[in-house]
Amino acid sequence: MAKTTNPEHAQLEAFQTSRLKFFELLAANPNYFGNLKSSVYKPVFPIIGNTNYEQVTCVGFNPSTNVLEAVVQVKQPSGYNGSLCQIGSYEYVRFFVDYGSGWEDAGLAAINVHDIADAADCHKDSEKPLSYAASVVLAPKSNWCFFPVLPKVRAILSWNSIPTPGDAGYTPIWGNTLDSEIQIQPRPFFLGEVVAALNKDVKLVVPPEILEQTLKLPIPLPDPPPLSFLELNSLYAAKEPGKTGAKAAAAASAVPSHRYGFAELHQALNTKAADPAAIEMKIANWKKVGLDWPAAVASLKEIDANVSYEQLECLGLEGGFGLERLVATFVIKQPVGYGGGLCTAGSTEYVAFWADWDNTCDYTYLGTVGVKVHDIASIPKDGLVYSAVLPVDLSKHRNPCNTPKIGRVRAVLSWATPPSTSDPYALTYWGNLLDAHVQIQPGKEPNYLTPTISILGGIPTSMIDSTTGQTTSNAVFALTNTAADSLGRACPFGGRVSVQGELFPGYKYKLTVQDKSGGLPQDLITPLTLTRWDGTTYLSFPDAQHYYTYQDPTQNIDSLLGEWDTGGDDLWQISLQIADLADNPIFGSLPDTHVIQLDNTAPQAVVHLDNNLDCSRFVVGAKLQGHYVAYDLNFGSFSLGSEPYAGPVSPSGGNSATAPLPSSGNGWSLNTAGMTPCGYVVQLTVADRSIVNSSPGNHNWGYASVGFCLLAS
What we know:
- This protein has about 725 residues and is mainly beta.
- It folds into 5 domains: about 1-50, no CATH class; about 230-300, no CATH class; about 310-440, Immunoglobulins (Immunoglobulin-like, Sandwich), CATH 2.60.40; about 455-595, no CATH class; about 605-710, Immunoglobulins (Immunoglobulin-like).
- Helix content is about 10%, strand content about 35%.
- The chain is built from 9 helices and 35 strands.
- The strands form 9 sheets. It has a 6-stranded mixed sheet with strand order 1-2-5-8-9-12, with no helix packed on it. Strands 19, 20, 23, 25 and 26 form a 5-stranded antiparallel sheet that branches. A 5-stranded mixed sheet has the order 28-35-33-30-31, with no helix packed on it.
- Helix 3 crosses helix 4 (about 210-215).
- The longest helix has 14 residues, at about 5-20.
- The chain is globular.
- It starts with 6 loop residues before the first helix and ends with a strand.
């Protein structure tokens, strides 16, 4: 009897094989999967935008913190290149933003994923999909509150292949593209703008240097108070259902009185002691403006988890290395009904977070986050997507890497009134709840009051070699999971080195650095700018003995312990010590100590034309030749180009250094045929591998240029 093959099973096997050999297949044929827009290579096994293994499901934004968030679901038990005890693979998310004139690259983030076997939780629900989140900080373009800024945003998810920078049309092999629209927080009025506006009529004589100084000086204005019921009635009453004549035209966007009068109704329904006289006065006041209080009370009581105005859509867990946070995205659907426009206080969408970290079928309340929303007449048809983010401390919920730890989390959305903090199943009038399964990063539960530096210069300390003080070959940035060096080379550190670690509220700590080549220990005493969960910041100062106070995770979402402004190129040691609130070191608690290699020296960059022809004149069509030096002890890359651009310089760049000075370096050439007669420079840019200011893409740089003039032939 002939053997038959299940087509679906065969396709699944083909998918698994192609993922297992992903890099090998692409190395032989870069268009093996057919996702390249133009290529001389023919596809072998076409796969474009496949979401069988992973999918980005939501893209949201928090206007207070300027953070773009994407939630990604990982669906399969295997196909991710290894278990939690292995390196696994990466889900790359590149973000884009479009303010109306085209897509702009907003940055890259990544999620480290692994093979995790299917299982069911205590509710007998499948633990798949697992929901992760990835984020980038956006530097938004903003405007006054009179002019809503509602850009489109895009997230491109791509497994094990980084989406091309600047290419918003990139086609992933495994993954997908998702668009949504967000709202940017209005910017303040600047004093210079007010002065300029006054000058149109008053004709004040303002010295230019003073006007320049005031141009970006914000005018400190108090936050507007919430609109009163009468103001809300004036704003929304014309939109009440049942109106006739011209007012009926607005009925499509009606805001019922039990929505905009919610504050008064809710107060009466949830009072601790009944006050009939006050209720009678409310009824009379409502009647004066043509509203029926008893009918509104009845309508409100009928409302049960209504999602016609707002709705939770996604929930995931972001981060690792002690910087985890829960991310919930929700969509605002209507143009009105949120307490006023962007120049008013608006209203608040509250998201309460719950978790069952240990599979007990009991939820623990974690905290509630509020996000401001407003009436926006120009809201897009698919609504505006916001995100609520809550930092969480998972240090006591970790398992070893050979025992995956999956938690069940819940978000509860409620408009205008916070959700219950005691009942995870309670829903209010407007809003909904959403559950998801998340993977807790493996590790060991920290010992009580053991000081811990988790991240140095943006890199997990577990990925910094304990001898050389440089990054390991697999090092990634803790917040974005992107590689410290795309070629896996060791990287030193420079500039401002951030120190992050475990938080122990109720205690203090001190950071000390010392040059390993000699010198006395130095305490770090730089004032710290700490960020709360709601995006507001404040300063934290050390005391007279140089001890800082540990803050609660919600008051220090980045777990920032110190900022070290480095100098020189030596190997240093950094230590963290814990103490009680009286600055007494904790008995038996050993300092956490790490070494870190510094490099604050710019690379060598020299470029010349041969035969002492720098700044000479040439006829169009001449073939120019020269030499360049691009060198650093920790060399990263170089690029060569002409400005203004008129043709490629050969070589245009690379990852290999030349010999150092006083060598003449390597040769370069430029064919000027077809170039326009003009003055030009050949620009050399050299970067080292040093991680400067704890940020991806920041290095020590060297620059050099040589000029020449082209004359018509």
